[in-house]
Amino acid sequence: MTERTRIRKISVQNFKGGVGKTATVLNLGACFADKGYKVLMIDCDTQGDLTEVCGIRLEKRQPTLYHVLIEDLNVMEVVVPLRPNVHILPSDKKLAAAEALLVGMTARETTLSLRLGHLAEFDIVLLDCAPALNLMHQNALLFADELLIPVDMDKLAISGCRAILESVNTLGVYNNFRIPELTGIIPTFVDQRTNITNQVLGVLETLYPGKVLPSIRSDTKLKQAAAASQSIFEFDPKAKSANDYRVVTETLIQMKEGFRDEEATAVSQ
Fold first, then answer.
1. Distance CA 47, CA 57 (A)
2. Which residues contact 15 (CB under 8 A, 6 or more apart)?
3. In the 3-class helix/strand/coil scheme, how is the chain assigned residue by residue?
4. How far apart are CA 206 and CA 200, in angstroms?
5. pLDDT in tens, 40-93
6. How high is the pLDDT of residue 6?
7. Phi/psi at 9 (nearest 5 deg)?
8. In the predicted model, is pLDDT for residue 118 greater than 90?
9. Which end of the chain, N or C, is surrounded by fewer C-beta atoms within 10 Å?
10. What pLDDT is stored for residue 175 in this prediction?
11. At residue 260, does pLDDT exceed 80?
12. What local confidence, expressed as pLDDT, does residue 2 receive?
């Protein structure tokens, strides 16, 4: 692991459900952690899918993201350690109530940034977002510096990808907010034997040249790992999807290191 200059805050979004957002957050988080990065995963979905897949059974009075947003509870009193270098900021259905309360608050789109602005205990923050255009979607975008969009091999997922990017531009242009950089698009559930896979990959490469990251192949072991409340690396480190997530993680690390090298060169000149 190279020395970081700042926290990487990465929002994982697509307006189409079932594209592998939660699996991507879980397994990228695990892989970053294996490489020595301290990772915080934030469950920004009112369904609490990431919290559930991590095997967390929230107690009745256990604080969640709701309490951070609405009661200004210190985030480090809420995060739950999962394994070495990996923590989660959990959520449940109370997050829907938080959305309703945020509507009447000042700076409602930037509450997450205000509450977590002091965060310095982690190297990587990954946000798992619902497939919905709501306040949590906007809060996640305005908190994050980077955007990752998983896209499954379905043309509807491309529409969801477009909608996310349109939402980002709207936030930036009409509200004068700083918007996250599109770090990349991750093709998921890839099966090169099918025509639709090749068609969707071709469209992605045409629409987003240079932004399509290595693919995650279809793998039943991903669902089995989730059912066991494990990352793919815990469930079967030799699985093909485990190797794919390693490649994506290494690509993300190299992209940022390359940017920093260029930045350092520009400064020295």
1. 13
2. 131, 132, 133, 159, 160, 163, 164
3. CCCCCCCEEEEECCCCCCCCHHHHHHHHHHHHHHCCCCEEEEEECCCCHHHHHCCCCCCCCCCCHHHHHHHCCCHHHCCEEEECCEEEECCCCHHHHHHHHHCCCCCHHHHHHHHHCCCCCCCEEEEEECCCCCHHHHHHHHHCCEEEEEEECCHHHHHHHHHHHHHHHHHHHHHCCCCCEEEEEEEECECCCCHHHHHHHHHHHHHCCCCECCCCECCHHHHHHHHCCCCHHHHCCCCHHHHHHHHHHHHHHHHHHHHHHHHHHHHHC
4. 10
5. 999 999 999 999 999 999 988 899 999 999 999 999 999 999 999 999 999 999
6. 74
7. -115, 110
8. no
9. C
10. 65
11. no
12. 43
* Domains of the chain from N-terminus onward: 8-253 (3.40.50.300)
Look-up of token digits 């000042």: 106
Name the residue type at position 117.
G
